[in-house]
């Protein structure tokens, strides 16, 4: 099945495919697949003395200290000789049973030719390449889909435990390595450049802030500073991983072409020379590893950046209630958490000892912990523990549900709920005073605007009086537009305001104001001035009455709340004292 799945060398009409070898006709193999075996030594475990005369071989579970690097069955064929992987591409492999070394192994390079690959597999079977010492076999290959410009680094894992049998798993890592010049990719480049500028800007800003305050005072000044430093450091790590990934990509494709033609590469014409294109699968495996770490760091950075939004929305009433509730109940939750985890780990240990040999979800203490966490969320397999023990299984399940789910979890919610109610009541009292301050500030703003209008009218009146003393024409007094404009400009009036004021009273439109027009202007200005002063007086009186009433009302409510709290405390103390006195009298009676 492996060979048939890797080598799609014919169309559905049995016509041969002579181009790049592909999977599903669209995903091209980059280089030949490779197999790598990890083994343990025959002396990796000790046989019991009662069986040493009958049993002569013992292969332990996998560990680096037990790893075998000698030739398999003392054969000299390349596939049976331990080979070191190039230091550039050494990555340990996480399996279901253990973590396996990435330094090397017994490596088999399959050909791109299906017939030769089948012959290689048959040779391995004939010479017993896999035996009792085998602990893991990895099959690595990389495919490229030109339709979507994506690479897939594939690792098929077969693990052989010391108990016998086989566990299979797989890893698929999708990579976007060779970017095209699409609009989306150009947009990503622009975003990355902006990201670099932001890193440099905030790095310089935090540096000068630390330099001014000192490192310890800087951290103590605000808890958000820890988060800022973490974001900067993880952003720098993100750029570092991106540079490493680009370096590996360049190195892989620079080393892909060679003049030596082999069965593991594709023949290509480059200029007048025929060369072999052979991609190192293990280097792609390293590239997939670094790309996965890049994605992990990017995910953490995105999460922390979202958390930082709380810093800028803390002024919101709901957000302030949330942060105040969590900070105030932190000590209570910590104390309760200690009690909770004592009970929780006790149940985890109980489940591990009761069902560990029969139920997979309790096969180790760690898996038992995660199983009980899932049980809190409603994800459980009651049938498996009931089958393991028909008496203790249901008792364990019901007791855990009662003590942890119904009692401890509700205590946890009660702590948060009580603290939230307390914070909400306090914020309600504070908001009443805040509303009073708000209305007071609005009233002051209104008074300031009215006062500014009054001052402006007085400035205009003074400017007109000044111009009247400067100009006299004929029998009466006349003021020209140019003269009054100069005086009003000195008093910070705009040309538009001056033009509108002059046009309103220049009835004959001769660009001059005569005595009648001046009298009309003075009368209007004086009337507006009196009206503004009256409005200011009324607004001031209403504000004083409202503030006085609100202050009396709020102070009464606030005093009443304080007195009520003190009375409750006194009642509690008196109750405690009376109970102790009763206890003393009872003790005295017993002594008599």
Outline the structure in words.
Keywords: Calcium, Calcium channel, Calcium transport, Cell membrane, Cell projection, Coiled coil, Cytoplasmic vesicle, Disulfide bond, Glycoprotein, Ion channel, Ion transport, Membrane, Metal-binding, Transmembrane, Transmembrane helix, Transport. It is a multi-pass membrane protein. One of its GO terms (biological process) is detection of mechanical stimulus. This protein is of the alpha+beta class and 592 residues long. The chain folds into three domains: 178 residues, no CATH class; 122 residues; 230 residues, EF-hand (Recoverin, domain 1). 59% of the residues lie in helices and 12% in strands. The strands form four sheets. Strands 1, 2, 3, 4, 7, 8, 9 and 10 form an eight-stranded antiparallel sheet that branches. A three-stranded antiparallel sheet has the order 11-13-12, with no helix packed on it. Strands 5-6 form a two-stranded antiparallel sheet. The radius of gyration is 43 Å and the shape is flat.
């Amino acid at each position: 099945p492996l060979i048939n799945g890797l080598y799609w060398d014919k169309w559905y009409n049995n016509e041969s495919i002579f181009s790049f070898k592909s999977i599903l006709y669209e995903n091209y193999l980059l280089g030949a697949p490779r197999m790598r075996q990890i083994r343990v030594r025959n002396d990796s475990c000790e046989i019991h003395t009662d069986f040493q005369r009958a049993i002569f071989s013992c292969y332990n579970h996998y560990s680096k200290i037990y790893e075998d690097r000698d030739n398999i069955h003392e054969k000299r064929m390349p596939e049976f000789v331990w080979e070191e992987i190039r230091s550039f591409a050494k990555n340990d492999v996480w399996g279901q049973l253990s973590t396996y070394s990435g330094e090397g192994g017994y490596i088999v390079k399959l050909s791109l030719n299906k017939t030769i690959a089948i012959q290689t597999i048959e040779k391995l079977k004939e010479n017993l390449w896999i035996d009792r010492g085998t602990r893991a076999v990895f099959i690595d290959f990389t495919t490229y889909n030109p339709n979507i410009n994506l690479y897939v680094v594939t690792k098929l894992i077969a693990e052989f435990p010391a108990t016998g049998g086989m566990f299979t798993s797989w890893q698929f890592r999708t990579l976007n390595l060779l970017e095209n010049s699409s609009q989306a990719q150009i947009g990503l480049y622009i975003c990355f450049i902006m990201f670099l500028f932001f890193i440099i800007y905030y790095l310089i800003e935090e540096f000068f802030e630390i330099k001014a305050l000192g490192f310890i005072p800087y951290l103590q000044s605000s808890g958000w500073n820890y988060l800022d430093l973490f974001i900067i450091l993880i952003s720098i790590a993100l750029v570092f991983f991106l540079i490493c990934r680009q370096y590996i990509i360049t190195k892989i494709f620079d080393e892909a072409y060679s003049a030596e033609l082999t069965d593991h590469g594709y023949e290509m014409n480059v200029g007048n020379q025929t060369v072999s294109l052979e991609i190192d699968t293990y280097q792609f495996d390293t590239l997939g590893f670094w790309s996965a770490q890049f994605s992990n760091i990017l995910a953490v950075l995105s999460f922390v950046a979202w958390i930082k939004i709380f810093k800028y929305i803390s002024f919101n009433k709901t957000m302030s209630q949330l942060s105040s509730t969590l900070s105030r109940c932190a000590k209570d939750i910590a104390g309760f958490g200690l009690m909770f985890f004592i009970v929780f780990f006790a149940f985890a240990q109980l489940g591990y000892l009761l069902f560990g040999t029969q139920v997979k979800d309790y096969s180790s203490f760690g898996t038992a912990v995660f199983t009980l966490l899932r049980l809190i969320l409603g994800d459980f397999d009651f049938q498996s523990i009931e089958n393991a023990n028909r008496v203790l299984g249901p008792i364990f399940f019901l007791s855990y549900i009662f003590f942890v789910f119904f009692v401890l979890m509700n205590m946890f919610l009660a702590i948060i709920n009580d603290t939230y109610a307390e914070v909400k009541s306090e914020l309600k009292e504070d908001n009443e005073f805040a509303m009073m301050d708000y209305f007071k500030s609005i009233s002051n703003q209104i008074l300031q605007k009215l006062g500014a209008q009054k001052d402006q009218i007085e400035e205009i009146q003074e400017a007109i009086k000044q111009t009247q003393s400067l100009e006299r024409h004929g029998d009466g007094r006349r003021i020209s537009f140019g003269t009054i404009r100069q005086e009003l400009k000195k008093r910070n009036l705009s040309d538009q305001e001056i033009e509108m004021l002059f046009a309103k009273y220049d009835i004959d439109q001769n660009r001059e104001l005569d005595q009648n027009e001046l009298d009309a202007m003075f009368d209007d200005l004086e009337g507006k001035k009196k009206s503004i002063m009256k409005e200011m007086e009324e607004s001031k009186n209403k504000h004083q009455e409202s503030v006085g009433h609100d202050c009396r009302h709020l102070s009464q409510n606030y005093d009443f709340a304080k007195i009520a709290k003190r009375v409750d405390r006194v009642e509690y103390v008196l109750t405690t004292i009376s109970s102790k006195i009763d206890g003393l009298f009872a003790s005295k009676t017993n002594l008599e």
